């Protein structure tokens, strides 16, 4: 008697415990119920990368939860069911075949690009290729770059049937085969069979009496879609980011892949910029890249190159400062190149989910600084006299015979003790 009384109570408590154990899908994505589609995508991009199992700090369970939450809330039908009936409503919807479960790693690849998984026997559409140009700074720091693309999509009005009322009939001319076979007499008793697309249904095997007003019976429309390309730090120029099944759509085949070629934006110098604005630029206009290394030209005056005692604060692509300097008496030759280790491009590790310790050696290439020495065009008369006197004084004491120093024979009639320069 006591057991029969307690059993319903225990069952109720167990049900409540299971319901409490199921996390709120909005909380999983760190959003509230007022979030829109853009908020959902932004949250998924951030959290899926954070918890991806291939990362050292990843969490596979949370990665799967994020994927399931996004997949449910990004679909208007399942989101409405969840908002009204919660997890029980979703479970019932799945039991009736209303929601299909997809591979969370395929969803991740569609967002960030990845390798394509070809399915044998499945007709695929053609691939598309677009170019996305970004400044050198984005190649150095990494960035998620949103872009828009116009492509062919399945008509939402008729769901890809092409019919306004949803009725599609079998073509009476080809009996639904899409092809017709005609016989041609070549000679008495000799015939040739020719196979061609049906001219009534256009090879579709189906006919529509009331075409959809949105797509005019073509089943597809041209629309602009918004995508995000993940530029990884150190990614090479010309790299292809692959978005699976994001090319032109059609109900008769699986959409092909969209290949986004990441190119470097050509540097542009605005002549209207002030000197201060030009100095503070860090988009890469003054850097040049070659593989994992960066190249920079630094201009020095004659005094700086010869006498030293100067400092330069070079603003890098991520706005951190690289200090260049020489002490007094340290000479810099024109065209001299200084190698600053660890200040080049980020070393790209193929794959956007791999993490590396920021203190790990070899994470960045080398920055090569070439020094350009600018000589004065003219001097005041008094300055010229003083410089000439100093030059003559020390040339006599410490001058070098350039011909002998370079190994050239001394011409006849020229005094061997003549010293050319310091």
TrEMBL record:
The keyword NADP does not apply. InterPro entries: DnaJ_C (IPR002939), DnaJ_domain (IPR001623), DNJA1/2-like (IPR044713), HSP40/DnaJ_pept-bd (IPR008971), HSP_DnaJ_Cys-rich_dom (IPR001305), HSP_DnaJ_Cys-rich_dom_sf (IPR036410), J_dom_sf (IPR036869). The keyword Zinc applies. Residues 24-86 form the J domain. Residues 1-21 form the signal peptide. Keywords: Metal-binding, Repeat, Signal, Zinc, Zinc-finger. Residues 142-224 form the CR-type domain. A zinc finger (CR-type) spans 142-224. Residues 401-422 are annotated as: Disordered. PANTHER family: DNAJ-LIKE-2, ISOFORM A-RELATED (PTHR43888). This is DnaJ-related protein scj1. It comes from Lithohypha guttulata. The lineage of its organism: Eukaryota, Fungi, Dikarya, Ascomycota, Pezizomycotina.
């Amino acid at each position: 008697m006591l057991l029969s009384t307690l059993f319903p109570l225990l069952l109720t408590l167990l049900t409540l415990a299971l319901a409490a154990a199921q996390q709120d899908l909005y909380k999983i994505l760190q959003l509230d119920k007022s979030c829109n589609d853009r908020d959902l995508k932004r949250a998924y991009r951030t959290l899926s990368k954070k918890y991806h199992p291939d990362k050292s700090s990843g969490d596979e369970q949370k990665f799967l939860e994020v994927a399931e939450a996004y997949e449910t809330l990004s679909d208007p039908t399942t989101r409405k069911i969840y908002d009204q009936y919660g997890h029980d409503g979703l479970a019932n919807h799945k039991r009736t075949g209303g929601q299909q479960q997809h591979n969370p790693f395929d969803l991740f690849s569609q967002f960030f690009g990845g390798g394509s998984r070809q399915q044998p026997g499945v007709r695929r559409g053609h691939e598309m290729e677009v170019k996305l140009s970004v400044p050198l700074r984005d190649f150095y720091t990494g960035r998620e770059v949103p872009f828009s693309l116009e492509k062919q999509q399945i008509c939402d009005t008729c769901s890809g049937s092409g019919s306004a009322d949803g009725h599609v009939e079998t073509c009476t001319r080809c009996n639904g085969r899409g092809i017709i076979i005609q016989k041609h007499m070549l000679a008495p008793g000799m015939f040739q069979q020719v196979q061609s697309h049906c001219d009534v249904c256009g090879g579709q095997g189906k006919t529509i009496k009331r075409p959809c007003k949105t797509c005019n019976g073509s089943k597809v429309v041209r629309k602009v879609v918004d995508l995000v390309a993940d530029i990884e730090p150190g990614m090479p120029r010309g790299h292809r980011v692959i978005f699976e099944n994001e090319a032109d759509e059609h109900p008769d085949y699986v959409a092909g892949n969209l290949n986004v070629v990441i190119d470097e934006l050509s540097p542009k110098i605005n002549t209207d910029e002030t000197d201060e604005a030009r100095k503070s630029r860090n988009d890469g206009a003054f850097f040049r890249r070659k593989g994992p290394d960066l190249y920079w030209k630094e201009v020095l005056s004659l005094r700086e190159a010869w006498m030293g005692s100067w400092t330069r604060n070079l603003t890098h692509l991520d706005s951190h400062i690289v200090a260049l300097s020489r002490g007094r008496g340290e000479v810099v030759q024109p065209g001299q190149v200084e190698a600053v280790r660890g200040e080049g491009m980020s070393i790209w590790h193929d794959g956007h989910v791999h993490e590396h310790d920021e203190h790990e050696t070899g994470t960045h290439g080398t920055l090569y600084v070439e020094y350009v020495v600018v000589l004065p065009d003219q001097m005041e008369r008094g300055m010229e006299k003083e410089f000439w006197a100093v030059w003559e004084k020390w040339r006599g004491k410490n001058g070098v015979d350039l011909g002998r120093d370079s190994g050239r024979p001394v011409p006849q009639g020229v005094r061997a003790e003549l010293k050319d320069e310091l």
